[in-house]
Each structure stands twice: as C-alpha cells, then as structure tokens.
Design a protein that fits this description.
Butyryl-CoA Dehydrogenase, subunit A, domain 2, Butyryl-Coa Dehydrogenase, subunit A, domain 1, Butyryl-CoA Dehydrogenase, subunit A, domain 3, 3 domains, eight-stranded mixed β-sheet, alpha+beta, 384 residues
C-alpha cells in the first residue's frame, strides 16, 4: 500500500485593490448617508483605507507594496467613488502621487524615488498634492538661504490636508535664468506649515481640500527633486498628466455610475412612461460615452511613453469624461423626478459632487487649444 502523499496547501489569493474597495464600500456609503455635516473631513474613511492596505497598493511589490497598476488603481477609485465621492477624490490625490514615482521606478529606473516608495509601504504615509496651486506655472516663493531654500506659499485645493503627512509641492525661485520652479516635499508637521479652514464648497465637501500656508519652512538643497522652467511643459509633467488624470477621473465616473443606479431604483418604483424610458436611454448613452472616454485615458497610460501626444489623448478623455458624466447625472436627476430632490435619496449629493469634474486641468479652453495646436502641428509647450 502506497503511503499517502502530503496534502498541498495553497494560500488564498491576496485581494486586489478594487476587491478591497468593494468590501469597504458599504461602510463608506453608510457613513456618507449618516453624516449630517458634509463639510466634515472624511478622516475615519481615510484611516480605514490606511489599515486596509490601500495606501501602499500602488507601490511596486519589490519595495513592499501590492504592485497595483494604473488600471487596477482606477478600478479601486471608481469603486470607492460609487459609495463616497469625497473619500475617493481625496484618496486619488495620494494615489496618483504614488503611481507616478512607481511608474518612474519601474519604467525609467529612477532610483531617487525609491526611499519615498519604501516609506509609503512601511509607514503608510499619506501624500498630499498641491496640483490646484502648482500646475505648469507654479506658485509660491523660494528664497535661497544657506543650505537650501526658504519657502513662503499658500497652496489651495490640498485634498486630505487634515491628515496628510507630506505635501508634494513646489515654489518659484527667481534666478539669473528666469523663474525656476523647484519641486520638493514638505512635512505637514513642520511648525512653519498651517492648514487653513477654507473648504466650504458646492460638492466634494468631505475632501478636506483646505488651503495650506507655508511660512518660512526651509527645504534643504538635497531635498529638491526637480527644477524646471516656470510656465512651460516639462517631461516630468507629461508623465504626471498622463498617469494622474485617468486616476482622478475614475472618481467622477464612479460618482456618475452611482447616480445612475439610484435614479433607476427610484424610477422603477412607479410605472415608467415613455418620457422616463427616453430619459433612461439618454442617461445610459451619456454614461457609456464617459466610460469609453475613460478607457481611452487608460489606454494612453498603457503605452508607457508619456509625451505631448499622450497628454493630448488623456486631456481629450478628461474633457469627455467630465462632459458626459455630468450629463449622465443631470439625466439621472430628471429620471428620478421629485424623489431625487430629497437628500435622503443620495442623488443630489452625487449631482453636487460631479460638478467638481469641471475644475481640474486642463479646463475646456486650454484643452481645446492644446488639441487644436497638436492637430495643426503647432507648439504646445506653453499651453496649459
């Protein structure tokens, strides 16, 4: 009689970032529905994302993270947004600040980003973005001092400011070569950094996107990661734009999908007439257009070749996602009828949250100019 073979035990598969988001979704939704003060920052939700492993999801596996790519991170944010737009949008600002250095480490062998990525994986630090202040032109003042630069700046739209650990930002140094933007990280626990209570808005009220005031913080010379000419596209910003905006706009797609489902649920409670059927069809068409446009944005990331061309593809997609997602939610409001006007339905919050899709770069005017210049073979280095 043969001896029984040893039983092979296989470990259960590690859940993906999107699967974790799906598990957390009902918790986020319940909190959003129960919150009486929408201006209150979603601190408990961000803390939950930290303990769930999503903070380090985009860090390469070799550096201690989960190795999630932009497609998976987009699915994660889209799922979070379905349940709570504010949580997803605030977290998208951290997520893209992880995804960009992770891409650079993987595809450009950029060793300089490795310490930051390892810190994210081991300490679960939360990165903040000052993108609303620090687009191509830059903002704030950097003054050369012994050993570094003294920074004075006010950074707006700093989502997640109340619980962030490092603000990834920049300031303008006036030197002999003209205005130069310096990029660096600022620890939020610096005595020279203050979060100002300024976030009172139409939608995305829980993101904690307050102004951050930096008064006299000194950044060491060695901590300056990038120097670039102010007011002109730089290869780093081509990488940032190509990777970041598909992640940010995954949030708005998730909000629109949630609004669609709420409206369908309300419409089904009564016998739909012909007008309601038409509204439902128009809503589905607009939402499908938003999904297709977002797919084009992700396709640009998969090329792994950030350039003026991928920026153009992403920004065209960004414009189309915003336009069609907003339109889909407007149709959802009409389809739901008066029932959707009540806050208890949750639809009016989605209607307010989706409006924020209008305000990220490139807004409609510069985006059309950029696309037109690309089509005509004209320079785009100063269109932003």
């Amino acid at each position: 009689m043969n001896a029984p073979s040893a039983m092979k035990i296989t470990a259960p598969p590690t859940p993906s970032a999107a699967e974790i988001a799906r598990e957390l979704g009902p918790i986020l939704a319940a909190r959003a529905d129960a919150e009486s003060d929408e201006d209150k920052y979603v601190a408990d939700n961000i803390a939950l994302l930290k303990t769930s492993g999503l903070v380090e999801a985009g860090v390469p596996r070799e550096l201690g993270g989960a190795g999630a790519d932009v497609d998976e991170l987009s699915a994660m944010l889209r799922t979070l947004a379905y349940h709570c737009g504010s949580t997803a949008l605030a977290f998208s600002m951290h997520t893209h600040q992880v995804a960009v250095p992770a891409w650079r480490w993987t595809h450009q062998k950029a060793a300089a980003v490795e310490p930051l990525l390892k810190r994210i994986a081991t300490e679960r630090i939360l990165l903040l973005s000052s993108g609303g202040s620090d687009w191509i032109a830059g903002s704030g003042k950097a003054e050369k001092v012994e050993g570094g630069y003294r920074i004075n700046a006010r950074k707006v739209f700093t989502s997640g400011a109340p619980t962030g650990d490092i603000l990834m930002t920049g300031a303008i140094l006036e030197d002999d070569e003209g205005p130069t933007v310096l990029h660096f990280g600022v620890p939020m626990n610096s005595p020279h950094v203050k979060v100002l209570d300024t976030w009172r808005t139409l939608g995305m009220r829980g993101t904690g996107s307050h102004d951050v005031l930096i008064e006299g913080h000194v950044v060491p010379e060695a901590a300056v990661a990038v120097r670039r000419q102010a007011g002109q596209w730089h290869p780093l910003f081509q990488t940032i734009s190509t990777i970041a905006f598909p992640l940010i706009y995954a949030v708005y797609l998730g909000v629109a999908e949630s609004a669609r489902d709420i409206a369908i649920g309300l419409a089904r409670k009564k016998a739909p007439g012909r007008h309601a059927v038409d509204l439902a069809g128009s809503m589905e068409t607009e939402l499908t257009a938003a999904r297709l446009a977002h797919g084009s944005m992700l396709a640009a990331v998969r090329l792994n070749a950030p350039s003026a061309d991928t920026v153009n593809q992403v920004m065209i997609g960004r414009h189309l996602v915003a336009r069609h997602a907003i339109s889909a939610v407007e149709y959802a409001m009409e389809l739901a009828g008066g029932a959707g006007f009540y806050r208890s339905a949750g639809l009016e919050r989605r209607f307010r949250d989706i409006q924020a899709a209008r305000y990220h770069p490139l807004q409609s005017g510069p985006q059309a100019e950029y696309a037109g210049a690309m089509a005509l073979g004209m320079p785009v280095d100063r269109i932003f």
